[in-house]
Amino acid sequence: MKLDLDIQNASGSDHHPSTDEMTQWVMAALDNRLEQAELAIRIVNEAEISQLNSDYRHKQGPTNVLSFPADLHPGVDVPLLGDLVICAPVVEREAIQQSKSLQAHWAHMVIHGTLHLLGYDHIEDHDADVMEGLEIELLKHMNFPNPYVLPQEECTQNHE
C-alpha cells in the first residue's frame, strides 16, 4: 500500500509523535483496505480546534480529534481520504487524566480519526461497538492497551 501522509505542526509544541510513528498508526488503520491513500494530519492548539469544533460541529470548546473526509465528486478517482486535526494539549491532558501513556493515546487518536475517514462512526451503539472493537484490536497488535479500559480497571478485571 502506498501512503502519502502530510503532517503539519501548528500547535507551537514539539511534544508529538514522530512522522514514522504516525505513519505506522495510519497504515494500521488502513489495514490494506486501499492500494493508495493521501491524508493530512494537522497538529493544533486548543484555540484552533475550538474554532473548528464550533464551525463544523456546532460544539463549544476543544476536542481531541476531528476528521474531515474528502468530499469528492462522483467519478473523481484520486486517493485523497481527507484530513485529521489533532489537538496536542487535549491529547496530553487526556493521557494524564486517564493514566495512559502519551504514545498510546496518540496512537488511539490517529487510528480513531483514520477510521472516521474510512467511514466508521460511533453515533449508533452497534456502530460504536464495531469501531471500538476494531480500534482495540489494531492497538493490541501494536502492544498498546485497550483504550476504553482505564489501567486501574484493567488490574481489577485481571484479578477477579
Overview of the structural elements:
With 160 residues, the chain is α/β, with parallel strands linked by helices. It has one domain: Metalloproteases ("zincins"), catalytic domain (Collagenase (Catalytic Domain), 3-Layer(aba) Sandwich). It contains six helices and four strands; from the N terminus they run βαβαββαααα. Strands 1-2-4-3 form a four-stranded mixed beta sheet. β1, α1 (19-30) and β2 (36-44) form a beta-alpha-beta unit. The longest helix is centred in the last third of the chain and has 17 residues, at 125-141. The protein is globular and about 45 Å long. The N and C termini lie far apart (43 Å). Residues 155-160 have low confidence and may be disordered.
CATH superfamily descriptor = Metalloproteases ("zincins"), catalytic domain
> How many individual helices?
6
Structural class: alpha/beta
| Unreliable parts | 155-160
CATH structural fold name = Collagenase (Catalytic Domain)
Q: Which strand order spans the largest sheet, edge to edge or round the barrel?
A: 1-2-4-3
Shape: globular
Q: Describe the largest sheet.
A: 4 strands, mixed
Order of helices and strands: EHEHEEHHHH
Please state roughly what percent of the residues sit in beta strands, choosing from under 5%, 5-15%, 15-25%, 25-35%, 35-45% or over 45%.
15-25%
Q: What portion of residues is helical?
A: 40-55%
User: For the record, what CATH class applies?
Assistant: Alpha Beta
Question: How many structural domains can be distinguished in the coordinates?
Answer: 1
| Global mean pLDDT | 91
Radius of gyration: 16 Å
